[in-house]
Amino acid sequence: MKILFITDNFPPETNAPATRTYEHCKEWVKEGADVTVITCVPNFPQGKVYEGYKNRLYQKEHIDGIEVIRVWSYITANEGFAKRVLDYMSFAFMAFWVGLFQKADVIVATSPQFFTTWAAVGISKIRRKPWIFELRDLWPESIRTVGAMKQSRVLDWLEKVELWLYRDADRVVAVTEAFKENLIGRGINAEKIDVVTNGANLELYVAREKDKTLLKSLGLGGKFIVGYIGTHGMAHNLDFIVTALAKVDDIDIHFLFVGGGAMKQTIVEIAERLALKNVTFLDPVRKEEVPRYLSIVDVSLAPLKKSDTFKTVIPSKIFEASAMRKPTLLGVEGQAQEIIEKYSAGICFRPEDEADFLKKLGRLKNDKTLYETCQSGCEKLARDFDRKILAEKMLGIITKVGK
After folding, report:
1. pTM
2. Which of 110, 180, 263, 295 is most buried, taking the most CB atoms under 10 A from its CB?
């Protein structure tokens, strides 16, 4: 089975799409698949080419048995809608032309932005090969939700294209049941939609003692640390969180933000304006380093803006935190809340409700029985969302389509 996978995020980038794609592809190679990934030069989220790479027209490398082809694209930071669209479209254009010359039994293209799927459609039509739409985000609906673009006519047109892509795909693999329900409600045939959720690499994310060296270097020894590790994007509602920190009275509670993104500078400026002493901001770290930072965290924070759109989203960080027995303080309604409550793997606060956020934070800090119950729930959740098992499930879907 020759699989051609198109994605604009791949390691050494550490965001959720990059991690999911890499871990899936690595397992598929172990199962005997021949996997080629077309991606761009690593630059997310700052829009700066990573050390050791150059934004060349074409370059190839091999990572854990995966053939990785990196193509040129217009590179910009993860901020500003127009520039990002140019970034996405330039990658799709290059991925299409390079993809035409790759041998493949099936083509897979992944969102959140769906211009990657445009490349897959073009290759599919010309090479007469089936293609799969991996649906990680309801884009452009999420663009409308966060207010990144106000030209409704353009968004209306993009949503028509989105629906056409779902219909054209030989298979749609959604990462949540809610995404599947959304598509069915918009007229997409339920029989062509599968669900393969996100999960955690249980070999990388393992419960461990707190890294004392890291704690000492950050000056956080003895603190109850609430950690947010990941993209600081417009959807994540971090400005609300940082503003609320001014009302956290417990001096033992400290917040740790690790990562970058469109909202990073904004939340840093909010913290400076409020003269906050209970927060630390760090730059993004390599994927292999994330478990080390998670080890010093007592609670993993996972917020999103209050919106019906985000009721369909399941933040991938809840799986990684659970694998390390770190309860999640979740500010998301809908399916993510259902999972956390089903497993008792954390506690949920109402999005954008400051009083409820502070109340739930206090409960996790002060109720030791609740905290230990959440830790036990984390273990059960992690076992049920083992990335290796999920990768095998998706490979089965790809194999059926590619026959």
Report:
1. 0.86
2. 110
CATH class of 2-199+387-402: alpha beta
**What residues does each domain of the chain span?**
2-199+387-402, 212-384
d(CA 110, CA 325): 29
The CATH T-level fold of domain 212-384 is: Rossmann fold (3.40.50)
Give per-residue pLDDT as tens, 166-191. Answer: 999 999 999 999 899 989 998 999 99
Alpha-carbon distances, residue 335 vs 51, 176, 308, 312, 325 (angstroms): 38, 8, 11, 6, 21
**Neighbour order of strands in the sheet with 253-258:** 279-282, 253-258, 224-229, 299-303, 328-331, 346-348
Phi and psi based region of residue 54 (left: phi greater than 0; alpha: psi -120 to 50; beta: remaining): beta
The residue type found at 253 is I
The stretch 80-94 carries a mean pLDDT of: 84
Per DSSP, helices labelled H in 36-194 are 81-99, 115-127, 141-146, 152-168, 177-185
Two tokens at 241? Answer: 């969180």
